[in-house]
Amino acid sequence: MSELDLENLISEIKTYQPLADTSVVEKAYHFAKSAHAGQKRLSGEPYFIHPLATARNLVELKLDPTTIAAGFLHDVVEDTYTTIEQIQKEFGKEIALLVEGVTNVGKIKLRGNREEIFLENLRKLFLVMAKDLRVVFIKLSDRLHNVETLKYVPEQKRKRIAQETLEIYAPLAERLGMGDLKGKLEDLSFPFVYPDEYKWVLEVSEKRYEETDRQLKRARGMLINELREANISAEVHGRKKHLYSLYRKLLLKDRQIDLVYDLVALRVLVNTVAECYEVLGAIHKKWKPLKGLIKDYISQPKPNGYQSLHTTVFGPEGKIFEVQIRTYEMHNVAEHGAAAHWDYSQRKSVVKNDAALDGDRGVNGASFEWVKKLASWQRMTRDSEEFKNLLKNDFFAGRIYVFSPKGDVYDLPKGATSLDFAFCVHSGLGSSCVGAKVNGRLVSLNTPLENADLVEIIKSKNQSCPKRDWLEIVVTGEAKRKIRSSLKRFENK
Ligand code: MN
């Protein structure tokens, strides 16, 4: 730990923000270093390695000097004699608010009656988050270093931190489209939460990786040649599926690793959207795709902003594997999500317009829809019990993505029905719903939707009040809340 760390950090920031004033980062570095002087981590190392690692993770996310400075300072109020007033005096109100936000989130712990407290804590977390997303970026960067050093933590506490990471922070990173961070958080926590399952997945996957890796190397060589002939300049990498995400998939596939086709995958990076489709064409010319497994997340991005083309093909030796095709820009978004869209000059996340997309949603529009929704839930739900149910049913249950006839993507919990969809689009649409077509076929209103369904709501001009028994059909807290409030309005008339 030396001045060299600071120099490296600053020059790294200059690579993505050449004109940034980094003096605040330097000041925060020195301030935190002296505030934590003499303190040690459980590993025996100087405490300061932790805020330093947190700041590094924020630089990895390409965040602005203000956020990085707050990263350096994130533990000084909690763990030293420094007060928040001092931070405000030295660094200004903005940084003080960020440090205070992270300190408050840090007090949130899973204890006692688990579920009850867990949900209440989530509520607090979201309250802080809706105020400033940068608090979450700092908290996630902080948590990453904490799970990287989990082995030094006493066993009892270790499991709690790992579990909290799997249950709260990794899903949060995923919902913010931060794929890289999510994968790291999960894989580092996995062995501490499910030690036996971890050993099992490691064992079944290791043998397969070797074999599949060899075949993939061959496929990669063939694909590079093919693309060269087609005159497309591209980078082709192999990517290994993260262990925890493999574990989740194995649970869905009766624990049969033969049924997991994306254990390893090829990832093709190109410059333009047009080239993505050219690459897809070149691949299908060479290898036959499996039916139903071509996914176009470029024209239909996932709600968290993820874009790519996916296809699963019969490759050399008839071996089935997945190929993911995206631009460098999409790759950056897939790895860093909301952080990639953070515009520090506007102090908010911005939706970039991508000329390749129709409409005005932009690359990452949908994911911020979600953050906005979160904030509005908090305003509308004064009752914390109701808010907890919203979170429990809507945030953490497995998700499905469905389409409106216009092609907009909606993100719903598993088990959601056409009625949930209708109320998610608009209260008025929900209230006047008399039927639904899913993929062109009429279905009853209580039929659960499936991933990628196209849902069309049939409405009637003569109906403007929801039916009371719909409360039994819908599963989302949002639909329940909207139905109840319409019913109440009609009863009062
Ligand atoms: Mn910390």
The major β-sheet equals:
5 strands, mixed
The CATH superfamily title of the largest domain: Hypothetical protein af1432
Q: What is the overall number of helices?
A: 21
Question: Strands across the major sheet, in which order?
Answer: 1-2-5-4-3
Helix content: 55-70%
Query: Which small molecules are bound?
Result: manganese (II) ion
CATH topology of the largest domain: Hypothetical protein af1432
Q: Write down the domain tally.
A: 3
Write up this protein.
With 493 residues, the chain is α+β, with helices and mostly antiparallel strands. It has three domains: 3-178, Hypothetical protein af1432, CATH 1.10.3210.10; 195-336, Beta Polymerase, domain 2; 348-491, Ubiquitin-like (UB roll), CATH 3.10.20. It is built from 21 helices and twelve strands. It has helices spanning 3-16, 23-35, 49-60, 65-73, 76-79, 84-91, 93-106, 114-131, 133-148, 155-175, 179-193, 195-229, 243-252, 273-286, 328-336, 365-380, 384-395, 418-425, 427-431, 470-473, 477-491, and strands spanning 235-240, 264-270, 295-296, 309-314, 320-327, 342-343, 348-349, 399-403, 409-413, 433-438, 441-443, 455-459. The strands form four sheets. The chain has a five-stranded mixed β-sheet with strand order 1-2-5-4-3. A three-stranded antiparallel β-sheet has the order 11-10-12. Strand 6 and strand 7 (348-349) form a beta hairpin. Helix 2 (23-35) packs parallel to helix 4 and helix 12 (195-229) crosses helix 13 (243-252). The protein is globular and about 70 Å long. The chain starts with a helix and ends with a helix. The model is unreliable at 344-367 (pLDDT under 50). Manganese (II) ion binds at residues 50, 74-75, 142. In eubacteria ppGpp (guanosine 3'-diphosphate 5'-diphosphate) is a mediator of the stringent response that coordinates a variety of cellular activities in response to changes in nutritional abundance. This is TGS domain-containing protein. Residues 398-459 form the TGS domain. Belongs to the relA/spoT family. InterPro entries: Beta-grasp_dom_sf, HD/PDEase_dom, HD_domain, NT_sf, RelA/Spo_fam, RelA_SpoT, TGS, TGS-like.
